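Ticket #4471: complex job returned nothing on first submit. Input attached below:
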Amino acid sequence: MKELTLEAVAENIPAVTDFVNTELETLGCSFAVQAQIDIAIDELFGNIANYAYKPGTGPATVQVEIEDDPVSVIITFLDNGKAFNPLEREDPDITLPARKRKPGGLGIFMVRKTMDNVDYEYREGKNILRIRKKI
Amino acid sequence: MLNLEEKQEESQLTIVLDGRIDTSTAPLLQAAVDPLPPAVNHVVLDFAKVDYISSAGLRVLLNLEQNLEETDGKLELSHVSDLIRDVFDITGFLDILTLI
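Support reply: We reran it on our side without changes. The output follows.
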């Protein structure tokens, strides 16, 4: 397992993306799957940056693990901020006309649709959000 | 990284986008279209060189579509790749955006 800890600010999203992509490159990951994973990182690390320690900031840790059979990547996001389970959020209504659409909830909705598994737990004062994607 | 190349011809504003539209870059697109120049009621976003779009970018597109609908304007997206089209499909944006 590889691990990276850094301040949970939006400016650090590219550093997290680079860290994960370096691991994905060793697996021959397709561009399409890598794009889905990069979007998930933007959504999940962005959520921590925007909400976990509001109005202050704090650290976030990103762990990357590779599993065999089927080859999958597991990415875990940990923070010590306010307990928040994004999976409890109601899905946005994606059938409404544009003028009635609300902008909220699209990020976590996309992550749930594109990843093979997403789970959340709050343990020992930490938000732990884990995504799994077959490569 | 996201680069924007803007060109206005009468009431049409064309923006060629190059890069990723995500949390860190969506504000650049937002700044380019909100507010729109007073004469503009037709916006074309060229997506040929867009690698991916996250929800931060979708929020800008939704806001722009809503603003242009209110003023009887028009938003069109050109050269949308299959990858970006998938994102629009998953989020129901294919139903509210005009792809040309």
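The mean pLDDT of chain A is 95. Closing as resolved unless it happens again.
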